Amino acid sequence: MGRIIAGAAGGLALASVPGDATRPTTDRVKEALFSRLESYGVLSGARVLDLFAGSGALGVEAASRGARAVVLVEQAPKAVAVCQANAGTVNRALGRTAVSVRRGGVDGFLEAEAEAGRGWDIAFLDPPYPLSEDGLAATLGRLAPLLEPEAVVVVERSRRSPEPRWPAGLRRFAERKYGETTLWFAEPDTPEDQSQDQPQDQPGTAGS
Hints:
Keywords: Methyltransferase, Transferase. By secondary structure, the chain is of the alpha/beta class.
């Protein structure tokens, strides 16, 4: 059973998805990830997408640490039930509805969101093993137009997986390996940014 590491709901136990259909994020990886996001200054008040959410552990951790609104997107029925339970746990601890759950495919959700335009500050993607490289690239392409200019995208993959193919509108700015897990960090890309030399391991100046 997992837990929320820090924030207003820190220490609360989280339900886990039974079986091996999902790949839980370890506490070590989660702590490193959120320490990095907090150093970027993007977490407080953020609107967050947790795509391929699994148990929703990343999304509810974001809510505990100050995100304004979090949407967990998951298709598998067992995982959806766990997301709903974990969202309820965190919402009760926070005293407000910070986390909501959408049952369905990620691509369908993103296509429906396209009508609303930009608005998301952070997006987590922990795609399932069966998703192809082409499928992941297509999902990232649907996500890119929905992001705020200074948003951060985090893709969690097995260390044995190749780097995602970043679509037009997204560029990678950092990579971190933790045991068998690799985290890829990306941000919105614009023609103006392509002409600038940006330091690695920090978000660039898109939209500034």
